[in-house]
């Protein structure tokens, strides 16, 4: 695999930055790796395990190098899906294979519902779709409380609630205030409100991503092979439960992958998973 070459793509309301790691020779379809709001840097280790394929990564609009010009407060999965549609056109039109994790998996489900001909296989890893949970109303109430905390108190207190929410096992309490949340200062999070409200996670994608309802009828009828993946260590957590709920609605069984929600990562953010084993599992699914 060559060193990544960076490019930009003008789309309505944003300039997207993306990276292409060219494989030597001609082989399998391009492998597009996407997250949200995680940018391309989170896939560096995983991409290195697919040197035999051309791998494309990108920064979603409003994240890192991808600058927004739309003036909107939030980005929806449908908006991200349109960006991905245009990105796939820019790299050859597809069909590509897609590995999508977390919010990226939600955006990829929206993409396949609208443009199935562009995607051969989608591996959607732990989409945090609250609407498919048995305790959907409780989950969405916890998430709304997190967003309200962000608007009222800023990043640190809201991020403490985000960590509590994503690590919580089982159904959520009826009252969001019953969710155990650590002191932000004890977690190394800022306690002073800097006044900004443009965080890509808490300000732009939190509600629109987790409250999104995939177009299940379109997905079930799509030409794309859709595989839902969940982490073996994530049992009971919201993102895995979301993946399980999506798989059930698609009338499929989720595939169990190694590690946790970030199991494909190396030391990009100081919380390494099991990228070698994860890559092997992903390759097995893509080659099936």
Automatic annotation (TrEMBL):
Signal peptide: none
Keywords, ordered alphabetically: Hydrolase
Gene Ontology MF annotations: hydrolase activity
Domain annotation AB hydrolase-1: ranges: 30-191
Record bears the keyword Hydrolase: yes
Protein name, entry field: Alpha/beta hydrolase
Native species: Nonomuraea monospora
């Amino acid at each position: 695999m060559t060193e990544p070459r960076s490019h930009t793509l003008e789309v309505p309301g944003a300039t997207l930055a993306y990276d292409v790691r060219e494989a030597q020779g001609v082989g399998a379809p391009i492998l597009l790796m996407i997250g949200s709001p995680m940018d391309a840097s989170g896939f560096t280790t995983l991409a290195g395990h697919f040197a035999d394929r051309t791998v494309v990564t990108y920064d979603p609009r409003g994240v890192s190098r991808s600058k927004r010009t739309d003036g909107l407060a939030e980005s929806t999965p449908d908006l991200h899906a349109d960006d991905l549609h245009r990105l796939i056109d820019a790299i050859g039109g597809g069909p590509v294979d897609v590995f999508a994790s977390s919010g990226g998996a939600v955006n990829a489900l929206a993409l396949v519902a609208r443009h199935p001909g562009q995607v051969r296989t989608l591996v959607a890893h732990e989409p945090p779709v609250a609407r498919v949970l048995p305790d959907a109303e409780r989950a969405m109430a916890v998430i709304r409380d997190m967003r309200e905390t962000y608007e009222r108190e800023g990043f640190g207190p809201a991020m403490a609630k985000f960590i509590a929410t994503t690590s919580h096992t089982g159904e959520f309490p009826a009252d969001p205030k019953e969710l155990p949340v650590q002191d932000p200062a004890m977690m190394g999070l800022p306690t002073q409100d800097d006044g900004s409200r443009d965080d890509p996670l808490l300000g732009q994608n939190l509600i629109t991503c987790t409250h999104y309802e995939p177009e299940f009828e379109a997905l079930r009828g799509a030409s794309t092979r859709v595989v839902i993946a969940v982490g073996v260590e994530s049992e009971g957590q919201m993102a895995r439960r979301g993946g399980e709920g999506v798989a059930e609605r698609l009338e499929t069984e989720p595939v169990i992958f190694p590690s946790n929600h970030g199991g494909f990562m190396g030391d990009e953010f100081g919380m390494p998973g099991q990228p070698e084993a994860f890559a092997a599992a992903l390759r097995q699914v893509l080659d099936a």
